[in-house]
Amino acid sequence: MKQISVVGAGTMGRGIAYTAALSGFNVKLHDIDNANLKQAKTSIEELLQKSTDKGFIDANRVKATKQQLNYESDLHQAVCEADIVIEAILEEIPLKIEIFQKLDQYCPTHAVLATNTSTLSPTEIGAATNRPDKVIAMHFFNPVHKMKLIEIIKGLDTSEDTVQIVKDLGETMNKETVEVNEFPGFVTSRMNCLIGNEAMNMYMEGVASAEDIDKALKLGLNHPMGPLELVDLVGLDSRLRNMNYLYETLGEKYRPCPLLTKYVKAGKLGRKSGEGFYKYR
């Protein structure tokens, strides 16, 4: 496996592309919006510079990583030589199915098609293609270059060969992997959504300030980041989509906090909009 294509140049897509290139793979990062691609390139090069300044990587590795990264707005050109494609677009099943049908058409027959979903069904996505045995979910975590875990979720028809390919890929990218049986929300998203939703309910009820709720979980339960800080990082709109899906599939305990819905309607989406449960410059 030499060529990786990443579809979607948002926060997760650019993080996956950066980590894959840094691990020695040739990477094509695709987005239909050239402005997103330009922003992704700037972000990746800034991250490379920071890593160099801190002594994590040397100048030769920076040069090699830049050479191994290509940015492509045409989907066919981005994936036509791929050994594996990792999709990282919005958590909406119709959009993912549409992309995977195109990937099935454009990619080599041997290519594995992976979705970086945190909740959705690889079985449903794979069923829309002619290669369900080669469709799988690889759930990366933000920030990709720092977080050690990849959740691997196989669909009903995913082959063991495909599972092994993505496990080997994760190892090459210096990640730990866990294999999860497909079920809505997998492991981490189910837990994260419950904890985050309860934190939002407590904040709405006036139990404590956002700062003190986050501080309590960081210092009392040894969480590296508070649940309200985390939802600001991932995006309140993304969290609401996940919560709605889990509510529809798993029931009442995943009903989204009313405050989350209200903030999204107000455009308070977290770090990317400048304000969520905290304000950002």
From TrEMBL:
GO terms for molecular function: NAD+ binding; oxidoreductase activity, acting on the CH-OH group of donors, NAD or NADP as acceptor. Pathway: Lipid metabolism; butanoate metabolism. The keyword Transmembrane does not apply. Residues 185-280 form the 3-hydroxyacyl-CoA dehydrogenase C-terminal domain. Keywords: NAD, Oxidoreductase. NAD(+) binds at residues 8-13, 31, 91, 96, 118, 142, 272. The keyword Amino-acid biosynthesis does not apply. Pfam families: 3HCDH (PF00725), 3HCDH_N (PF02737). The record marks 139 as: Important for catalytic activity. GO terms for biological process: fatty acid metabolic process. InterPro entries: 3-OHacyl-CoA_DH (IPR022694), 3-OHacyl-CoA_DH_NAD-bd (IPR006176), 3HC_DH_C (IPR006108), 6-PGluconate_DH-like_C_sf (IPR008927), 6PGD_dom2 (IPR013328), NAD(P)-bd_dom_sf (IPR036291). Residues 3-182 form the 3-hydroxyacyl-CoA dehydrogenase NAD binding domain. Belongs to the 3-hydroxyacyl-CoA dehydrogenase family. This is 3-hydroxyacyl-CoA dehydrogenase.
